[in-house]
Amino acid sequence: MDHPAEPTRRTGWGRLVLGALGFMTLAPLWAAAVPLAALQLASIRRRTSELAPAGLATGVGLWWLVQPGELPDQFLRAVVLLASVAFLILTVRTGWSFIHRALAGALMGFAVASLLLPVFGSSWPELIWWVEFRQGIAFRSMIGILATLLDTVGSSDVSAIDIRDLERRFADTARLMGRFSPAIVTLQVLAALALAAAFYRRIAVQPIGQVPGRFRDFRFSEHLGWAVVVALMIVVIPRIAALKLVAANALLVAGVLYALRGAAVVAFGLQLLGTGGIVFWLFATLAIVFMLPIVVGGAILLGVLDAGLNLRRRWIDAASR
């Protein structure tokens, strides 16, 4: 099993700030305070000088957890809290790499929170309905703003038929977001754990456990491929249709992980060529803006190839000859 290489130096604040800004497009920034507080509190017994930042993270995390909210908000908070506890236990008790601890913690937190839904008088159909309902409101607001803007500027290029077509597309997107809300929540929790671990690495005097390595070294166990195979079989075989939605959500999470691995391979290759850093992120931004489907598909394919062929190890061996 390959583990991500650990960084030899601490990540700069600039990258952390950019990471936090990117995280805010996925989930509330305060969600990362919960796992950060858990990690820092576990370090207090080693360094009492970390009491102040631990207290700040704990206060922010508790404030976020007790905020009122609708069912999707409360479910996300529950998963983040449970995943943070599981992640901390795995950090203290195991020597696993970050991605494996984060993935296990996120899945355990999600499973426990899902089991607790009936206890609190809720259910998955209700949660999915709430996600679709809120996204539908947000999309309708966007369409209303667009229609008002077009009326203001007097544009005649967009007809009522185009607006209705846009409404149908947004409605389909809202339904998809509801059906894939398990995968979305899992990815949000993984991102929160990654951001928290990165900040923890930067501010902790003696961090516990392995922390996220450099992005270009990102990898995970090849055994994830078997989970993908099983999920694909469930989706394809018609007799087990009851599990198709679960399998589809699992495939979405796996697809994102393989896409990230493929992007890491590209970053690694650019680094070997003497470029990288801002060149990689500029290239990635332009590619995503203009060729998103091709980029995502190519990144997933490259990630799968790296899982099977260990491309980065081969490139290092070839460069050292």
Describe what you observe in this structure.
The protein is mainly alpha-helical and 321 residues long. The chain folds into two domains: 1-213, no CATH class; 214-321, no CATH class. 74% of the residues lie in helices and 0% in strands. The longest helix has 32 residues, at 278-309.
Which range does the strand content fall in? under 5%
Helix content: over 70%
The secondary-structure class comes to: mainly alpha
Shape: globular
Radius of gyration: 21 Å
Q: What would a concise description of this structure say?
A:
This protein is mostly helical and 321 residues long. The protein has helices at residues 13-23, 33-43, 51-65, 71-93, 98-116, 124-153, 160-179, 181-203, 224-236, 244-272, 278-309, 311-320. α9 crosses α10.
Q: Which features would summarize this protein structure in a list?
A:
single chain; globular; mainly alpha; 321 residues; 2 domains; disordered N terminus
Secondary structure elements and pairings:
Elements: H1 13-23, H2 33-43, H3 51-65, H4 71-93, H5 98-116, H6 124-153, H7 160-179, H8 181-203, H9 224-236, H10 244-272, H11 278-309, H12 311-320
